[in-house]
Amino acid sequence: MEEIKATAENMLEVGQLSVHFGATRVLTELSFRVQKGKAVAVIGPNGAGKTVLLKTLIGSLPFRGSVRWASGVRIGYVPQKLDLERDIPITGIDFLTARAAVAHQSARELSSVLALVGISMEVAQRSIGALSGGQFQRLLIAFALIADPNVLLLDEPTAGVDEPGQEQLNELVRRLQKSENLTVLFISHELSVVYQYADNVLCLGRERAWFGPPRTVLTPELLRQIYGAEVSYHVHEH
Amino acid sequence: MSIETLLLSIAMALAAGLVGSFAVMRRISLAADPLSHVALPGIGIALALHIHPVFGAVAMLVFGALLVWAVEERGGATTESVIGVVFSAALAIGSITTTGEDLIEALFGGAGALSWSEKIFGVCIATAIVIFILVFRNNLIIMMVSPDIARTAGINVRRFDLLYLESFALTIALGLRYLGVLLMGALIIIPAAAAKRLAHDLKSMLWISVVLSVAATTLGSLIAAKLHREAGPIIVLVATGLFLASLLPLRTWKHE
How far does the CA of residue A98 sit from the closest CA of chain B (Å)? Predict the structure, then answer.
């Protein structure tokens, strides 16, 4: 197998990555590279292994092949959905304070991070189990941002968020990516968002994967092939 | 009741209140209860080998926590069944190897006066557990919300899982001679369960749990001394009373 070294311009290099759950193969010999400061969208039908890929990249799942992060990587991870009890006595403030305390590097001001993601102090003082889907999603993004990451891994960050909120969060991630030179990997089902925000797209099909700029990878033929149906999308006009 | 026994019971209650808070929030209280049963075969083996039963119980509890941890790695629905089977078997083996009176003492406590070595050992273990939970409460909270997120925050999730389970096992060991394994499980869970109903954030959760646990232990011990009864069952009854009180009207102001 080819020995891959994370080069200066790459934040992430994935080589021949395979993940199996028992006899079920989820990812097979996947290889791609992500340059520093770029945004990569991960798309594909349900069950293609998008979430599994992100979990593998953060070291939560066993795999074969190689996953190389550049040295000094600090990952902020926003998972898809968490199962919390409604009355868990942990507030948003508790949760963010815990992250700041655990962070070895200096943490940002709580209030500025909350303002950044659009959560009021009053909402942050509620139990994290009592927040709406969208509020909790924003809290998770605040959590990811508080320790000053240079990589963001987002698993459908706008799922459960209302339409204006989605726009806002997408713009927030875009703005942070530019201003702080963040490398972003995000899972999305919205092809219009992928076109708008991604420098490259990793398209996971059931048999193989495609990687490249959206306009070259996302041909109507390919979309029909992997989703098995006609997929329409519209680009938001601004 | 002597001063040092009182101090030991307070130290034990502090550890139980803190460990219990996380057991209740992590929803492992049901899986953790069978763990206490593993102390019994330890006592039986220790008695057969003519060593102090407490050491046999501690050794088996530490081993039992390690077992739960190892099984947890495999994940899935099998974890709970394995825990249920293994520790019920432990209870069966324990009741065969331990004779009648020893068995009752191990289950419900009340085995005469504590030796100095037991008291010092108890206070040291309780202090270590209290320090562990307070220092690493932030790691435990993040792990509780999501182990995946915890990993990206640089937390060694597996290591802290093991340390937490061992803290739980050792807290049971602390109460072994005083309350017995069955009732110690109750002292860990009940004050924390009441605190969870009343608390609105982490700080109040830990404080309420600890205060209720210490209150139940001291109050229960005092009442037991007055009535010339074993302390264990009275302590658990006081804790249960406090829990029932927590169900009453306070529930409404929590969400204001």
Answer: 4
Partner residues linked to A40 by β-bridges: A185, A200
CB atoms within 10 A of CB B70: 11
Q: Which residue range is the domain that position B166 belongs to? A: 3-186
CA distance A163 to chain B (A): 26
Return d(Cα B53, Cα B113) in angstroms, integer.
14
- Asked if pLDDT for residue A219 goes beyond 70, the answer is yes
Q: What is the ipTM of this complex?
A: 0.85
What pLDDT is attached to residue A4? 47
Q: Which of A88, A93, A97 sits opposite B25 (nearest CB)?
A: A88
| Edge-to-edge strands, sheet with A64-69 | A24-35, A10-21, A64-69
Q: Which residue of A has its CA nearest to B158?
A: A60
Residue B220 belongs to some domain of the structure: no
Supply the CATH number for residue B104's domain: 1.10.3470.10
- Digitized pLDDT (tens) for each residue of chain B, 256 residues in all: 678 888 888 999 999 999 999 999 887 776 667 777 788 888 888 877 888 778 888 898 898 888 888 877 766 556 667 777 777 888 788 778 777 777 777 666 665 677 788 888 889 999 999 999 999 999 999 999 999 999 999 999 999 999 999 999 999 888 887 787 778 888 999 999 999 999 999 999 999 999 999 999 999 989 988 998 888 889 999 999 999 998 886 555 554 4
Question: Would B120 be classed as within a structural domain?
Answer: yes
Which A residues 63-122 touch B at CB under 8 Å? 75-77, 79, 82, 84-85, 87-91, 93-95, 97-99, 101-104
The contacts found for B41-47 with CB under 8 angstroms, 24 or more apart, are B41/B90, B41/B93, B41/B94, B41/B97, B41/B98, B42/B94, B43/B94, B43/B98, B43/B102, B43/B106, B44/B93, B44/B94, B44/B96, B44/B97, B44/B98, B44/B102, B45/B97, B47/B97, B47/B98, B47/B99, B47/B102
- Put simply, the answer to whether A85 touches B27 (Cβ < 8 Å) is yes
pTM: 0.87
The pair of structure tokens assigned to B163 is 């340390």
CA dist A176 and A11 (Å) reads 17
Domains of chain A are 1-73+153-165+185-238 (3.40.50.300), 81-149 (no CATH)
